[in-house]
Amino acid sequence: MAEKTYRQLVVPEEEEILDALGEWPDATEDGARVLTWRDSGGGSLTFSYDVLARSVRVRWLSGEGHQVMDVYREGATRLTPTSTPAAKHLSVEFHTGECRGTMEIQVTPHFSVQDRLLFA
Prior knowledge:
Layout: H1 14-21, E1 26-27, E2 33-38, E3 44-50, E4 55-61, E5 67-74, E6 76-83, E7 88-95, E8 99-108, E9 112-119
Antiparallel strand pairs: 1-2, 2-3, 3-4, 4-5, 6-7, 7-8, 8-9
Protein name: YD repeat-containing protein
């Protein structure tokens, strides 16, 4: 029988997130952290994460307020913000026992989300 190992969600310090992505994570009443970006067309991308629940949510709204995407996922193991002169990204790694994957979120210069979750 395979042994189940608890994995925690490893996140950088809030100052590191601010330095890399230009946004400070706000805290919600339940302890989750939320980051929100706005684009030039009035659209918004909201990313939230809960360390204890090992969960993340990405919500993307168009400039007209239409929902483009709303993804909620559990099993997150690592959150990594990166910044280059050309773009700012947020990478989330997942491991849910049978599946592993990565969600890549670009927040500048435009929004983009790529998500892969495959059987391990």
